[in-house]
Amino acid sequence: MPSFSHNSIHQEQTIGGPIEFSGVGLHSGAPVKMRLLPAPAGSGIVFRRTDLDNFEISATGRNVAKVSYATSLMRQGVLISTTEHLLSALIGMGVDNVIVELDNLELPILDGSAKPYVEAFVTAGIRGQRRRREYIKVTKPVEVREGNKFIGVYPGDGYSIEYEIDFPEPIGHDSFVVDLETETYDAEIAAARTFGYKADEQKLRDMGLIRGAGPQNAIILTKRGPENGPLRYTDEFVRHKVLDLIGDLALAGKRIQGKVVAVRAGHAMHTALVSRLMKDRSAWELAHAPVVKATEIEPEAARHVGKAALVGA
């Protein structure tokens, strides 16, 4: 299948121009407008609350807040919630530097996956910058365990992920393996949607969660299977967990070079791994990518290839 990938690009990149989104937050149900802007090399991913005097929060582990049903950032009492899908798309598509403006506390859920972000990136284009990309190269194992849940990161080439899930029926046990250096995020991961059990809906709403959830942005599961099928992948559930993991590990501040293994993990364990890795300075080093000529993906070419990559996703 033709695909659109930046995995071999070793310079930092940003988007080719402003991109706008609007929608509602998955948990808050609140309307939100969001705009992504190109950012200078070396600036990373920075969120900006336009409704709060452009207050900025960097997408780094030190700003992680509540992480039960979504990954949120907080600085000086200002919250930005449900960041994982956008962060996943940025890492997956090789976008290093971007400003994310939004006028409410939660990012829009869109269709429940990262696919709308990928489509927008390839339409706007992705522009190479004259700065070598730095990676967090894992040099020794770092692990987090909690009962029968586990996540660890190990030395390795590329950025490989092994994820194993075990949910109540109709999902059950499944696993998925991907290497973002050799397989493409847009074709393998981006279209996988978030999911939930219909039996849990009222309990979660009573907790103030999933107020913006519906069949248009989540797979709704009954004992018989998806209420709003068909699935985009036969193993869409585990692929979505990989999508979330990539977004949560983006909070390390740079793309990871190593192997990640997760078993029955979730947002809290994902971000706990980031925290433990960052605190153990003996477990990683900054590594520069080889020098190559900066490139620019033209919007028209990107649009054509991006559509080809997502056909049938």
UniProtKB/TrEMBL annotation:
InterPro entries listed in its UniProt record: Ribosomal_Su5_D2-typ_SF (IPR020568), UDP-acyl_GlcNac_deAcase (IPR004463), UDP-acyl_GlcNac_deAcase_C (IPR011334), UDP-acyl_N-AcGlcN_deAcase_N (IPR015870)
Key words, A-Z: Hydrolase, Lipid A biosynthesis, Lipid biosynthesis, Lipid metabolism, Metal-binding, Zinc
Positions of the catalytic residues: 267 (proton donor)
This protein's record includes keyword Signal: no
Pathway field: Glycolipid biosynthesis; lipid IV(A) biosynthesis; lipid IV(A) from (3R)-3-hydroxytetradecanoyl-[acyl-carrier-protein] and UDP-N-acetyl-alpha-D-glucosamine: step 2/6
SUPFAM superfamilies: Ribosomal protein S5 domain 2-like
Recorded GO MF terms: UDP-3-O-acyl-N-acetylglucosamine deacetylase activity
Top-level EC class: hydrolase
Binding-site residues, Zn(2+): 85, 240, 244
Catalytic activity: a UDP-3-O-[(3R)-3-hydroxyacyl]-N-acetyl-alpha-D-glucosamine + H2O = a UDP-3-O-[(3R)-3-hydroxyacyl]-alpha-D-glucosamine + acetate
Lineage top rank: taxon: Bacteria
EC number: 3.5.1.108
Hydrolase as UniProt keyword: yes
Cofactor names: Zn(2+)
A Pfam family that the UniProt record links to this protein: LpxC
Family: Belongs to the LpxC family.
Role description: Catalyzes the hydrolysis of UDP-3-O-myristoyl-N-acetylglucosamine to form UDP-3-O-myristoylglucosamine and acetate, the committed step in lipid A biosynthesis.
Protein name (database record): UDP-3-O-acyl-N-acetylglucosamine deacetylase
